[in-house]
Design brief:
Blueprint (H helix, E strand, L loop, with lengths): L1 E9 L4 H9 L4 E6 L6 E7 L2 H12 L5 E8 L6 H8 L6
Antiparallel strand pairs: 1-3, 1-4, 2-3
């Protein structure tokens, strides 16, 4: 499974509608409106890099109001639970 984080700039008056349209696309797992350099961040998962390459320019970028996307491909996932589990190995109560 390939995970991508997509940073999305959207016309100001279309942010809520565009974000919901993006969230409804197959392969889009989470969409967040945010403050900062971009308007929306989407977490996308697909079976192949080619599927990401189709989803972002072929669907996300074509949502009305979307001005620009920047896509980051994730290599590895980390979580606090993973770190907690690693540090607790061999420690039993």
């Amino acid at each position: 499974m390939v995970t991508a984080i997509v940073l999305i700039d959207i016309e100001a008056d279309r942010i809520p509608e565009a974000a919901q349209e993006i969230a409804n696309l197959p392969g889009v797992e989470q969409v967040y409106s945010c403050a900062g350099d971009v308007d929306v961040v989407a977490v996308v998962r697909a079976s192949t890099h080619e599927a990401i390459a189709d989803l972002v320019p072929g669907h996300i970028s074509k949502v009305p109001g979307v001005l620009r996307t920047i896509t980051h491909i994730a290599f590895r996932e980390y979580s606090s639970r993973d770190a907690d589990d690693a540090f607790s190995i061999g420690m039993q109560a």
